[in-house]
Design a protein that fits this description.
Layout lengths: L1 H23 L10 H10 L3 H23 L5 H40 L9 H18 L3 E8 L2 H8 L1 H16 L7 E6 L2 E7 L3 H16 L3 E3 L2 E3 L3 E7 L6 H17 L5 E3 L1
Parallel strand pairs: 6-7
Antiparallel strand pairs: 1-3, 1-6, 2-3, 4-5
């Protein structure tokens, strides 16, 4: 936050300096100093919309200010030099902005890759850790309920051994898509590894979570999974628990994991509450 404030101060200070310098100097080339606040702005807002807006604003500021400062002594040559300076400045600014935008997009893509599972495209365990660092204190402060569902795909190893790993990948992706069609926008859906998943339901009491978990179980059970013309029967087992004040993330997950273990031990394709 402090860095952004410093950038705003830099933009305003450098813009004021440019205006003062060009008020006292007849050199058109000094308007190139506008690149400083312009580039600083694009560093904060690395988009083409910001680039075009800042570029045009800087050009018009230069022309209007120069006319206001030196209108009584503005020969054609001076105006021509001013246009050349503006054009050169625009080219330099566009090239630098283009590089900054590409870097920003690359950083965004890398961050997205670091926080998502490459197969299913949903969040991974690293994202869950980062999310829960904020979600748990917020839940405690507001005294909002929060429910966690842990589930895995029943007999997934058998599916891989019988139909092949490509079939297993298909099942993982289709289960993910089916559940994505059910969860709320506020819910957090994570693949923690292998065939194991976690769903965090913020602001949802245990009773609501149980109904939701049962809906997921029935939806997966009723979905057709077909690989190379062969029907694959897919079910899931789920453990569910509600957050208790004072728990850390590992304790929260461990309770849901205990429910998942019991669901598997007692016949699978069921929801167990802990």
């Amino acid at each position: 936050m402090m860095n952004r404030k410093l950038m705003y101060v830099l933009i305003l200070a450098s813009l004021a300096t440019v205006l003062v310098v060009n008020y006292y100097s007849p050199l058109e080339s000094l308007w190139m100093l506008l690149l400083i606040p312009a580039i600083a702005t694009v560093v904060l807002f690395p988009t083409w919309k910001a680039t075009i807006t800042v570029g045009l604003s800087g050009f018009f500021l230069m022309v209007i200010t120069e006319f206001a400062f030196h209108q009584e002594q503005m020969p054609y040559q001076h105006a021509a030099d001013l246009m050349i300076t503006g054009a050169v400045e625009w080219v330099v600014f566009t090239v630098i902005s283009s590089f900054r935008i590409k870097v920003a997009r690359l950083i965004t893509e890398l961050e997205h890759l670091a926080l998502t599972d490459p197969l299913t495209k949903i969040y991974n365990r690293r994202y869950l850790d980062l999310y829960m660092e904020k979600a748990i204190p917020l839940s405690e402060r507001r005294e909002d309920p929060m429910t966690l569902i842990m589930f895995d795909i029943d007999h997934f190893k058998t599916i891989n051994d019988t139909y092949g790993h490509n079939a297993g990948d298909m099942v993982l992706k289709k289960v993910t898509r089916v559940i994505e069609g059910i969860i709320r926008d506020s819910d957090v859906f994570v693949r923690t590894g292998g065939e194991e998943f976690i769903i965090v339901l913020p602001n949802a009491p245990l009773e609501q979570g149980i109904k939701f978990a049962e809906r997921i179980r029935k939806t997966v059970e009723g979905t057709r999974f077909v690989y190379k013309g062969k029907r694959i029967l897919v079910t899931i087992s789920l453990g569910i628990t509600e957050y208790i004040k004072g728990q850390d993330l590992n304790q929260f997950i461990e309770k849901a994991d205990q429910g998942l273990y019991r669901a598997k031990e007692t016949g699978r394709n069921r929801v167990v509450v802990i």
